[in-house]
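lol so apparently i was supposed to do this last week
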Amino acid sequence: MTAPRREVDAVVVGAGLAGLYAHHRLRQLDLTLQGFEAAGDVGGTWWWNRYPGARCDVESMDYCYSFSPEVEQEWTWTERYATQPEILRYVDHVADRFDLRRDIQFETRVTAATWDEAAQRWHIDTDRGNRVSAQFVIMATGCLSAAKQPEIDGIDTFRGETFHTGRWPHEGFDFAGQRVGVIGTGSSGIQSIPVIAQQAAHLTVFQRTPNFSMPAKNFPLDPESVEARKAVYREHRQRMRESRAGVVVPMPEHSALELDADARQATYERAWATGTLYGMVAAFNDLLVDRDANETAAEFVRARIHEIVDDPEVAERLSPRKHPFGTKRPCLDSDYYATYNRDDVSLVDVRATPIVEITPTGVRTTTDEYELDAIVFATGFDAMTGPLLGPDITGVGGVALRNKWAAGPRTYLGLATAGFPNLFTITGPGSPSVLVNMAVAIEQHVDWVADCIAYLRERDLASIDATVDAEDDWVDHVNEVADLTLFPHANSWYMGANVPGKPRVFMPYIGGLPRYTEVVNDVAADDYRGFTLTPVITPEPERSASSAH
Ligand code: N01
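anyway here it is w/ 3-acetylpyridine adenine dinucleotide bound
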């Protein structure tokens, strides 16, 4: 006989920054919780992505929780851009300090969530046989957590070691003396390539699309500057929340086309020297909306690549010309371009000579065969929707989320999707998410969800579900704003273009964090406008024979 389902108030899926904070906030509401996490411990993306050179490219003092002024004061970051191990130590510290592992079952993947209309609850199943019933489900599954293998034949035939940057072995791997191939030149490739090059006997990089990358100019943080920030941390956090991308950057006043060439060049040089993603992207106010303005930034970066890389042919191969600057996520690097000046590093343009297959001994392209001992797939993720469509999620009327989203994700505010009551998506598609500092976006979403749940419980409401009309309006708005920009012109993971067959839709909301925050707060203040709130359905008492007449 099947065991009865364990009943809790909420299931939280994922134990990265979002899931952990959800546990913290929901516990304050006295909810009973069950967390599930596929990884062996807390950390989410920072638990999985342990590839050489992995760092955050948002500054460490900004990429961390703000909910606890105590943690803010007691934790001291050591570098401008924290390494993956340091971030994981930080997450570990927060989890310990607030006892956040208590309700989490690790090494457990949620396989299904099914809405039970009569009970107004979710039934959750896992790959370890857990059966849970919950009023609420919080999908804190991350935007970039479904690692994507490349569609290349023969991977299984390779006799050497293979790795995916997003699933790196915890014991690490020493490439010393090896002939290594890296496939992919997004952020993960661009961060790992310089480090792998230092270890390997020879590194071959297989590049399909060159990306724009800027120098990170990382440095150890000195105690005085850390103390200075800590002294004004609260005010700084507030400014972050009020900033378009969740980091404080001066808003540009000028169009790139307003200035003469010298003044423009000087602006770009200053932006380049900041060693920040947003410095360059926000150097002018029209880089992401005007093709000609954008081209000035693209040309500036290409000129830097040609300056750094000795061989002009290699420099040209590394120079992005097919997508506007910033429309595929740009990268911050440490010596990425200079790595191609090494004798033991070569660059293969697999757009010109595509990979045909992986053989037992290496990679075969249309023109050459590369003998390798190890291959690193830095091939990215089925972003944003991948983690949400992994489990079988079935809502009202037996509708599968996979079917509902067959033509692209549809959400109301990136927080909920109509027909799936009480299921919340933290930094879901249709929210600013990956376009802003994720730490800020996560806290904002979890706070909103916790406040919403508190509202429902105070009023004895059983469920909240987005209306189709509100969702349609939001999806239209998300698309309209995206269409004002150059983003739809690139084949990026923002557009789902990196996954064959995935609908081509710009997934995040690009209206900026302050505007978005205003909208979602306004919706909440207006008694959750655009949602249907349903009271607890009490079953009709069965009529006895005597009361029937
Ligand atoms: O993945 P990506 P990522 N044959 O999708 C190539 C965040 N992140 O893991 O562009 C050959 O960007 C693919 O080529 P193309 C950050 O938001 C943050 O690097 O599709 N090549 C591309 O070059 C980032 O944007 C940090 O033509 C193939 C690469 O693989 C996001 O995660 C660090 C291929 C994939 O690049 C994803 O980054 C790391 C094939 N069959 C990641 N398939 C920091 O905070 C794919 N490619 C610093």
